[in-house]
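Sample pair:
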Amino acid sequence: MIALAYQSLAAGGLAVGAVLTDADGNPVAEGRNEAYEDGPGTGPLRGTPLAHAEMNALGAARTGWDLGTATLWSTQEPCSMCAAAAAFTGVGRVRYVAPDPWALSSGNGSGSDADADPGRPHWLLVANAMFLRSVAVASDGSEEPRILTHHRAVEPETTAFHDRLPAGLPTAASPEDWLRPHWALLAELSAARELRTRS
């Protein structure tokens, strides 16, 4: 999923990736956010407001599949549209790595019944830092996007990590290559976030 989110970020889109897994945890379909991308792409939703990562993953599923035993994983907590699509298609479980930054900044909540995956605190920072970077790069003007300013108060570890990443869109071949110089900082900030959120 992180690699899919990274692909979206590198393409100048919103960094979100999703994978649909079968009952044994094997990936059977995947998608990444393509809502802000034009030109040839991987599916009919590309360049439309429906082209969220979860929608693209669900769109790759076949009608005859038993989705009741499947899990839809996303790097971000699904929005209400994607949560409704997962429920409508009968997906058994929805899980995510990081809370939806838009929902956090608006205070409205995401509207999903998805389960957070608490076992991956460092990937939470990575997922949200990539998401925030996509918004920052796409924003017009010289002022910091409101969502990033809000996260400085509510998710200081995420924004600290975001600020230490190279400026602009990534050019590295993979998220591992892009993040390699920052693993020690990532571990330190993840531990700090764990301590902060436990108290």
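The longest strand covers residues 27-32.
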